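Worked example 4.2. Below are the chains of a multi-component assembly; read each line carefully before continuing.
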Amino acid sequence: MLSAVEDSAPLAGGTWIMRRRGDGPPPSLYVSLQQIPTLRNLELGASPRFGACVTHSSLASALSDADELAGLRDAAGRSANPAVRNMATIGGGLAADAFPSSDLVPALLALEAAVETAGGQSLPLEAFLERRGGREHLITAVLVPARPARSAHARLLLRAGGEYPVAIVSVVDGGRGRLRVAVGSVTSVAFRWLALEARVGADDSPSSVAAAAQELLPTLAPRDDVDAPAWYRAAVLPTLLERALTRLHDQPPA
Amino acid sequence: MIEFRLNDRQTHVDAAPMASLASVLREQLALTGTKVACGEGFCGSCTILLDDQPAPACLLPVAHVAGRAVRTVEGLAPNARLSPLQQALADVDAVQCGMCFPGIVMSLTALLERTPRPTRPQVRDALVGNICRCTGYERVVSAVLQLADGGLRETGE
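Applying the procedure described above to all two chains together yields the following structure tokens:
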């Protein structure tokens, strides 16, 4: 139906589309994905696969015992507020344009996740984020290639009232001292901080990583909006990284 | 025609599928207990229960409730008898201007059904999406904890 009707669009949980943000006229037809059970499948093996219509709250509860995925669990279980988490889906969040403060995106970037689209193709999340906006991709699932040793997620709220975080940091211990870092809400699109990973090398102590991040701050292009000015989003980043890494090191490696 | 259960009764409405459940409840079904303030899923004043889970009715396309069970604040007090939670909130005078309160009551109803004896952090977490601009949350939280502890009477009688 999506391909048959020109200018139609998929509808998952609705929490983004119902706000009718963005430019331009709405699509001529929304096609609800709600009655497609396979899109709600969750597979938690060595390479987890999450259907596109899995909600944030289902994802968080499915990961309740998966401590090595604590970063993704916190991203899903603490984003927005309980009512929105019951409706908002993984795929809907990835497809939402101009949504820099998604919690799931940095958590999935740090896990080197891939996005599977209808037709069975999959592409790395970074590549998907660059090409987002076209209607050619119906997301069917998100794939995590391998479970990490440990992971953690830290988000900075100004009021702790369910608002968007000013900055988000997701860190993953990929095993054998390989630290992966992703940042959300600071720039217009969440990013994997490869320059920081390269600079810290094997020294992933919270203070060393925070110091390295401080040196790299001038290379970022932070964003301004009503919640916080650009300089502030960048200024809090080293401290938030330190928090995320402290949380990471508090966990025993899987 | 969209059919669903509303406060334990089979209901059908003729509405545009992308109309929000909040607008359909208020404008077509005359259930104005569900408030609409921000219309963006931030404030929680439109919180209803969808299959027993809190959901923001302002962001819920009415087509998505077809075949499901919706509960609104009006459904909590059939025959004008308050639920134990409502009574507890009334007893400690926790109710303020009334704009956020139906949403607060729905969020807490879901919490207590799932977790009859919640901890203070669990109560606060359940209220993350319910914004009050009158005075605050402390009396609300205390009322829930007292109720869960059996400290307040069990029914509205």
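Take a moment to check your reading of the output against the notes. Chain A touches chain B at residues 11, 14-15, 18-19, 30, 32, 34, 57, 80-84, 86-87, 160-163 (CB under 8 Å). DSSP finds ten helices and eleven strands in chain A.
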